[in-house]
Amino acid sequence: xxxxxxxxxxxxxxxxxxxxxxxxxxxxxxxxxxxxxxxxxxxxxxxxxxxxxxxxxxxxxxxxxxxxxxxxxxxxxxxxxxxxxxxxxxxxxxxxxxxxxxxxxxxxxxxxxxxxxxxxxxxxxxxxxxxxxxxxxxxxxxxxxxxxxxxxxxxxxxxxxxxxxxxxxxxxxxxxxxxxxxxxxxxxxxxxxxxxxxxxxxxxxxxxxxxxxxxxxxxxxxxxxxxxxxxxxxxxxxxxxxxxxxxxxxxxxxxxxxxxxxxxxxxxxxxxxxxxxxxxxxxxxxxxxxxxxxxxxxxxx
Amino acid sequence: xxxxxxxxxxxxxxxxxxxxxxxxxxxxxxxxxxxxxxxxxxxxxxxxxxxxxxxxxxxxxxxxxxxxxxxxxxxxxxxxxxxxxxxxxxxxxxxxxxxxxxxxxxxxxxxxxxxxxxxxxxxxxxxxxxxxxxxxxxxxxxxxxxxxxxxxxxxxxxxxxxxxxxxxxxxxxxxxxxxxxxxxxxxxxxxxxxxxxxxxxxxxxxxxxxxxxxxxxxxxxxxxxxxxxxxxxxxxxxxxxxxxxxxxxxxxxxxxxxxxxxxxxxxxxxxxxxxxxxxxxxxxxxxxxxx
Lengths: 301, 291
Ligand SMILES: Nc1nc2c(ncn2[C@@H]2O[C@H](COP(=O)(O)OP(=O)(O)OP(=O)(O)O)[C@@H](O)[C@H]2O)c(=O)[nH]1
Ligand SMILES: Nc1nc2c(ncn2[C@@H]2O[C@H](COP(=O)(O)OP(=O)(O)OP(=O)(O)O)[C@@H](O)[C@H]2O)c(=O)[nH]1
Ligand SMILES: [Mg+2]
Ligand SMILES: [Mg+2]
Prior knowledge:
Radius of gyration of chain B: 22 Å
Strand order of the largest sheet of chain B: 5-4-6-3-7-8-9-10
Order of helices and strands of chain A: HHHHEHEHEHEHEHEHEEHH
Bound molecules: guanosine-5'-triphosphate, magnesium ion
Low-confidence stretches of chain B: none
Structural class of chain B: alpha/beta
Structural class of chain A: alpha/beta
Oligomer: heterodimer
Largest interface: A-B, 49 and 49 residues
Low-confidence stretches of chain A: 1-6
Distance between the termini of chain B: 38 Å
Helix content of chain B: 40-55%
């Protein structure tokens, strides 16, 4: 709707350049404005959008388009390159023994994602186990257990214990035979000091190879502060974007990747354990800008 | 212009507004107000101020800020009604149904409101219309036990409308004042699940349908509020996780597209972490006047 309109107005202002081979300042200004609009309505952080559009503008004006390239394709290529430069490739997930911990805001999709990731690893021929350390949320144990049954993967939790650190320790031991340990944690946000201290403690015991920040695709400008805090506390090595089966564009993940100097690992596309995909930059950038396949174009240029 | 100076007043012209309005637009986006909504609000301000005069002692920026305050207040205070009075006057049992996206806090809000109503002397029964999500029954049961409330629940996979309907019948038979009907989280892009929501609305015929969303939500808040309102007309909204977030622009977006009031703010995970929504305070928060 609104967002599709933005995509099409970006397409519109780019189409105006179709015949042109040189760009003047006004052309660039107009396109940069549309790109700003697209990114802002995709929930990318406001100051990050300004930085990005500045570099796009500078490059569009300064760089000589390769021979035979239209002005339009030249700009699109620059936009694509700038975004790829920021997002990078999918977080590397080696297919070997490892421990991964999930962290993030309340309700962002951590528990669902841990079962999904376990399912994903099991399809790759590894033996995963999920350890549920959330002792706070009512029904958290049952939820994780049921999801793991659906994924047909090992599960550890202890509904009678109220110490997440203890559960983490016991869980790692009890699931020793598994190759991949996925540690789910209770939801928390940046301002909850006691809960932030708690996850630091869990992290100390678990010693994960990778900490993933689980972010709802619809998160707004708050993504920046949350990502900063989680990165400072436990170190974020990758981001998972959930609920991408909705209309939210997931620009908060771009902010988070920028803040944590990490990359995007997985995408959540639904509520069942199979609804998980590895991140792929081209599709994500197309979604952010509300445009089609930019990679292809960029390669052509 | 010179003439205006002589009288100590200056006429505001379009170009005087450009910079302050641009800055405000960025500020609104920074606060998660949806872009189209922000632009429409700023457009009303532009129309209002062009051709107006300002005293020389006032800056255009100041005038714009004041106009913005008023415009935001107008949007965010839309349809406000006295919730407590509405409950008090309604025929009992009163049925409340909670709708919204996955994980925004519907179930927790129901638990908080059960406590809220108890303090006002009302009895409540919880009905779990979430027959879908793993652990949904266990979650709400634990809340019901902690709060000492009766829970009506069916097996997973059951008909959500039937559960809430049973809740209403239970309330009628046992003289319970308020039925709190939960629903499974769903995305507005799922046609099946939105149709199911329409069915629940039709079969149960709730007194109030409350749309729950989170304060941390960004631009998408507009789209989902609109679509939930279309599927099962909402009477008001509740914004959760306000403790996680200092912006709250989602409140503006939701009020703007639905024309329905925000009634409560969720401010934490405990049962008492719920506050009556105060439009004036939210405007101050959005404009950074409360810090
Ligand atoms: N449609 C959709 N729903 C999702 C996705 N991921 C998670 N959910 C739903 O989002 C809600 C919250 O997911 P959870 O996995 O419980 O989130 P959490 O982060 O563990 O929540 P807390 O433990 O309370 O912090 C549930 O209703 C899930 O079914 C997704 O990719 N798409
Ligand atoms: N910080 C904070 N957390 C909240 C608030 N309200 C709910 N939560 C948390 O958000 C998470 C999700 O809450 P639920 O009540 O399960 O959300 P829901 O909308 O019922 O989720 P689904 O049924 O899966 O769609 C839980 O961890 C809650 O404790 C709030 O106001 N502040
Ligand atoms: Mg969880
Ligand atoms: Mg629920």
